[in-house]
Amino acid sequence: MVTSPELPRSAEALLADGTVVTIRALRAADHDAVAELHSRRMSADNQRLRFFGTSSRAAELTADRLSAPPRADFVALGAFAPGSGQLLGVVEAQIDPDDPDRAELAIAVADDWHQHGVGTLLIEHLVHAARARGVRVLVADALADNHAMHKVFHDLGLETRRHWANAEVRIEAVLDETSNDYLDAVEARGSRADLASLRPLLRPHSVALVGVSRRPGTVGHSLLLKIRRGRFTGSLWPVNPHADQIEGVPCYPALDALPSTPDLAVLAVPANQIGAVAEDCGQRGVRALVVLTAGLTRTQAARLMRACRRHSMRLLGPNCLGLATTAPGISLDAEFGRSAPKPGTAGVAVQSGGVGIALMEQLDSLGIGVSDFVSLGDKYDVSGNDLLQWWEHDGLTRLALLHLESFGNPRAFSRTARRVARTMPILTVDAGRSVAGRRGAASHTAAAATPTVTRQALFTQAGITATRSIAELVETAALLESQPLPGTTGTVAVISNAGGIGVLAADACTDNGLSVPELPAPLTMRLAELLPDGSATANPVDATAAPVETLIAAVDALAESGAVEAVLLCLAPTVLGSAESTEETLAPLLALPGARTRPVAVVLLDQREPVRFLDCADGSRIPAYADAQSAARALAHALQRSRWLAQPPSPERETPGCRTTVAAALVEQYLRTHPDGGWLEPPLLTQLLDCYGLPLVTSICCSGEDATVQAARVLARSGENGEVVLKAHWPGQVHKSDLGAVRVVPAPEEQVRAVHREFVERFGERLDGVLVQARQAEGTELLAGVVQDAVFGPLVVFGAGGTTADLLDDRIARLAPLTESDLHAMLTSLRTTPLLFGYRGRPLADLAAIEDVLARLGRMATDLPQLAEVDLNPLICGKDGVACVDARVRLEPRHTPDPYLRRLRRLPDAPGEPA
Ligand code: ADP
Ligand code: MG
Known about the structure:
With 915 residues, the chain is α/β, with parallel strands linked by helices. It is built from 27 helices and 39 strands. The strands form seven sheets. The chain has an eight-stranded mixed beta sheet with strand order 1-2-3-4-5-6-8-7, with helices on both faces.
């Protein structure tokens, strides 16, 4: 067990109703508050439930215990109210001296704070602290009629066991780190609390606008006009001490002069006033702030955040361009776009306001309305993740559009996105920033892998549709918003009124990973009946100069045939018959119902807009593109989404027997002596990989010739053909075989001595020792590793390995931790993969063992944020198991918060935290 006395630092988190509370370790100064909590602030009955009887001394003794100096085997946490700092509840855990896997838990919550989720939140934080101390089972004794306690444990989502003894019950909760139930329960609670706290921001009935100048053209003034123009249905209260009214809207001199507490306050005051104004808002009872002001100093930012946390206010911005919501009965347009967003089903959240406004204009001209438009700005608090959760439940949003440049908590984001993407498409612009520079220094295979592994692949994993530009985003949104999804095979029928453009469209489909298959005979016969003589009924179908009505009949025949999953109709203007304009030609198309069971997209070669909607008689819409490539790309995105949806939601792969606590201690120990981190040397490296059950072959590191001979004699027994492998070793080496530092040696002593001497001669001073390994049987050489992505967190990389790994460049990466379907995708998507599945008479590789290695790497990377890189290359895969003969591990000082611990972001000036 680790005896680290370091208690969790204070964290802020949301209660079920969205109130922010502070959770922190109790200290001496809390003594009286703890005593009071257990006496005056708990009814006699609650005291009985807590202490199993009444005792005047119990409260005092509890206070002594909980406020005592920190000990390694005891955790005591308190939840404190915002603003007043009043203690709301406490939880304690005493680790069993005879069995450090177990800790006994007790909890108390003030009477007037029951039913708010204080107890649950405290236990979640305790679970986190107890886990870090190596505790596996939490034990709580309760009276049989302590219903609140039973409920808290039941709802927690942990596996619990109950043992009844008369009027008491002993509850045991198992802290299994990989339990999906627990993570799901924590996430669901977090999501509920989040939604409650976001309501005043996104559905406000009254808005105060602070910092409105009388001068037109200023930020506050413009926003006032915009809100008024948008016909906000609630109350709008500009605050300005020097004006009675602005633009006819009555002003108030200060926040406390307002008729009542506004739900939302929008602040456009100078940076040096932000802190004070936010504090005023908090004291007035405001629950949400939008801060437009940019350029806050660290101190100003810290004051702003403190005010928000103290008064449970959610914060949008700073440095944002506001927000708009078209929700029925609200209609608030508090942003700077040229026109007001039209009501609709797309939720839009952008980090950069400029991009947001550009995107809104495109959506507007296309005719896609929005539910909410949110400019996130510097994201001190409200993030893309919050919005996804909101849209998941708002009953309006059916399409989420995100433009994010950074991810505060990528793992939580990826988990939320995976869930939300099941109910609606999530589209994003992949900002495509270069990852090459970040790890240019590390010259080895797994790290080199990342640049080739696009962020696109990572988005794919979470079911996010990642586009390369705003234009592509809008084009794809048009298809997803108006058309059903295609099936999963990716087949498309192309039909045109001019053969040449049909061929180009078919090429565009193929370029984008779709297939344009030959059509079955009954369908071609049907097409031949419909279309004029001289038409080609193969795919692409060339309908020659058929009138549009006929083309539509053919589209319907194709769409309903079941032979393909999407139809692309391409129209060239030059052969549109007698019609004066495309519009006229299209009239028959629009008169027909547009809704079909399979997606249809139109390509109009003379269209000026890259994409627009054709409005059909039945109210449905068909997207029309100016370019076949755009249409094909949108269809390809729809196909990917359809394929992603077809995979059942997949649980994380379990990895039993990992010794997380020991591993964490080893890492900590290493970083204490190597504060800048570094590559691990053999003994520690072996120990660390062993904690996660990773199959490193036995390597004996020898410092002299005799020791090498001795080790070779022992290992030769298990070596293939009785052979061993000798490797010259020194710290920081890469590509040993290039230097002649890897030699296969038959067992006889003279040969071992000869190679040893040769190493000494060749490498001289550099030589630090000789590694001896048993020679492994031949197998497929793969590589598996971990890299940390600055944006997304840890990735597991898998690919073709051995000394030719870089040459082959056949790799795939997935965000850790890995689910069953991630593992499946990794094992089946490489070009090398057929080698594992019995290619040309090879034996079938031990696929289960490979999956297990990948899952364990994922687990290790998730547990140990300091794990900067792992490179297992090669992993020799045979038909019975895998063996790694060359491993490199680099550690780096780093701390990432537990992604599943419910807590809000830290204040910008929190000590020890990067800005
Ligand atoms: P490096 O990658 O630094 O060049 P490795 O230790 O990976 O050095 O060895 C290079 C190659 O030698 C491996 O890819 C593998 O083909 C082979 N090899 C190394 N160790 C063994 C072993 N114990 N058994 C069988 N083959 C080995
Ligand atoms: Mg190697």
